[in-house]
Design brief:
alpha/beta; three-stranded mixed β-sheet; 9 helices; 10 strands; globular; disordered N terminus
Length: 306
């Protein structure tokens, strides 16, 4: 394999994955990478920052950027997330617009993204996702035709990020579109996200998956301490910040059972991810306006004044 110093024949570039909330961007990112770098949950707007995933495809290194869902922002955090998504699309060499095939029409958020691409003069690849949920092929073909009449996509791929259908074709096409140049990362690197932030994101995913609608979107997780031991294990202290006392009670659960379940699930996944023993400790605290605190935006690389 060519080395990262950039001998002739290598290619490298950035691909932004954009789409409406819950279009399946994080699931697609993980499928493209072949590992977990972006958290997934049924809650909309789960991704809060640009998550980078890196793969080698032949002589090409592709740096995928999983952006937050683009929607109408209502709060400061929302505005920062949407700004991060558009910045990711603006800076990328290629843009992949992900649209949910199971929806019968173009939703408002996707329409808004297409309008933004038009305004910016950006080209885009269409990835029609969740095709496994549409049983009639003629409906899929009609959907593809309607979308390509709405916007001149450079290529169209019908995929299922969950089952893996069409993923290899999409990845191969994007590899061929990368520009000639040296690789920017070592061959075995999967993401440039700091481990402290990735660990916090894993725990936030488990919280969303365990509490569903009981705890609102307004919680966050921060890795406060990280201590490596000589035996190869690591001790991680994380704080779960919620906005109200009753939210804290829900997260803790009766006798602390709920938060213990989250801790066990997160610790197990972190051990598998890092291939080392993890001692995870979770603390739950109330911080009413954490989403208005500039210091909370810094770990995600979000702009407070977006």
């Amino acid at each position: 394999m060519t080395d990262t110093a950039g001998s002739t024949g290598t290619r490298c570039g950035f691909v932004a994955l954009v789409g409406a909330p819950n279009a399946g961007k994080s699931t697609l990112m993980n499928a493209l990478i072949g590992g977990k770098v972006s958290i997934v949950s049924p809650k909309v707007q789960t991704t809060r920052t640009r998550v980078t995933g890196i793969i080698a495809e032949g002589a090409s290194q592709i740096i995928f950027v999983d952006t937050p869902g683009i929607f109408v922002p209502k709060r400061r955090l929302d505005r920062a997330m949407v700004r991060a998504a558009w910045d990711g699309a603006k800076d990328a060499d290629e843009v992949v617009l992900l649209i949910d095939a199971s929806q019968g029409r173009l939703d408002e958020d996707s329409e808004r993204i297409i309008a933004g691409l038009e305004q910016a003069g950006r080209k885009a690849v269409l990835a029609l996702n969740k095709i496994d949920l549409v049983k009639q092929r003629d409906k899929l073909l009609a959907r593809v035709q309607a979308l390509n009449e709405r916007f001149p996509f450079t290529r169209t791929f019908m995929i299922s990020a969950t089952s893996g259908d069409g993923i290899a074709d999409l990845r191969s096409y994007l590899a061929g579109e990368m520009s000639e140049g040296p690789w920017l990362y070592p061959e075995d690197e999967m993401t440039d996200m700091p481990l402290r932030l990735l660990a916090a994101e894993v725990t936030r995913e488990k919280l969303f998956l365990n509490y569903h609608q009981e705890v609102p979107y307004g919680l966050t997780v921060e890795t406060e301490k990280w201590e490596d031991f000589k035996d190869g294990s690591v001790k991680i202290d994380q704080t779960v910040y919620v906005q109200r006392d009753n939210h804290k009670a829900i997260v803790l659960g009766k006798g602390g059972q709920a938060i213990r379940r989250v801790r066990e699930q997160s610790q197990s996944e972190l051990e598998a991810m890092m291939e080392r023993k993890v001692h995870l400790f979770l603390f739950v605290k109330v911080r009413e306006s954490w989403d208005e605190d500039p210091e909370r935006f810094k770990p995600w690389g979000l702009e407070w004044n977006a």
